[in-house]
Amino acid sequence: MLMHPWAIWVVVAVVVAALVLGWFARAAKQERRRVAWVANAGYLTALPSFRSRISQYRVLLSCLVVVLFGASIAAGFLVSRPVDREVRSDELATRDIVLCLDVSGSMVEYDTEIVQRFLELLPSFHGERIALSIFNSTSRTVFPLTDDYALVEEQLTEAAEALDFDVDSLDDFSYDAEALDRLLAFLAGTEGLGQDASSLVGDGLATCALAFDLEDEERSRSIILATDNEVFGEPLYTLPEAADLVAERDITLHGFYAGAVTADSAAQEKEYRDAVEAHGGLFYASDDPDAVSGIVDQISAQQAAELDADADVIITDTPETYFAWLMGLLALYLLAVWRLRS
């Protein structure tokens, strides 16, 4: 970005004004200059060599004007002060966020949206650590808490591609076999208890609570849990028990509920909401995967407010590109002037 974009037009206007004034001054000087006439020299203008030199002169003169104008633009950008503007917050850099995703069939579509949204948010992170844990009947840590954003981007991209699968296509066998293989490879390790157990939310959340390290440091720790809370099987932890464990470890739990309307869904949603809100977390319910982006943004904004994270704006001058252009164009200008004089 440019700190003073108006300066470009000022520089261009000054250069154009100087060229116009220089042209009129040169014309006036030529009118006052004495002319020496040479007899029998009229045929010179018809000579091929003379015409060739005149053509070269005009081409060089045109190039000179273009180069000078380009140098003026480059100088204008330098005067406008090109900078990189970055917003940072030391408080937000102490955040640890664990994405805790239920990867049972009914949640895959919502998980995809959450992962993609964090991919979009990644460039705005500076020091925050992120982890991804997925669960069904058992849990798998995709990657632990880290601020290695190259690794995070790689892993989230792979996760988004694997989760971008139409689960309904399994019913009529219209699925893409390659996409299914990619999904199954990603979900490996989350179905250790077989087909009789699914969406053991309490166990999955308890595992996510154990993903935090650096217990001696003062850090903001939060879990974003996405599930429909539709439990099949006997978990070691119920959802309320796991939520209590999270609170005991001084971790904030934020919940995203995306359950379908069934005979038990109202009770499942209430249990989930109570477990999250009882410990001061944010709870959202939605049947629209497109709403996930807004929900993630609201959670991030709430964390910033709670941390009282006043942003610092860091401005770094970046004149390198335009300075290189200016030097190159000035070199061409001097070369063209030397060629014209010769």
From TrEMBL:
It comes from the Bacteria. The chain crosses the membrane at residues 6-25, 59-79, 322-340. Keywords: Membrane, Transmembrane, Transmembrane helix. PROSITE patterns: VWFA. SMART domains: VWA (SM00327). The keyword Ligase does not apply. Residues 96-299 form the VWFA domain. This is VWA domain-containing protein.
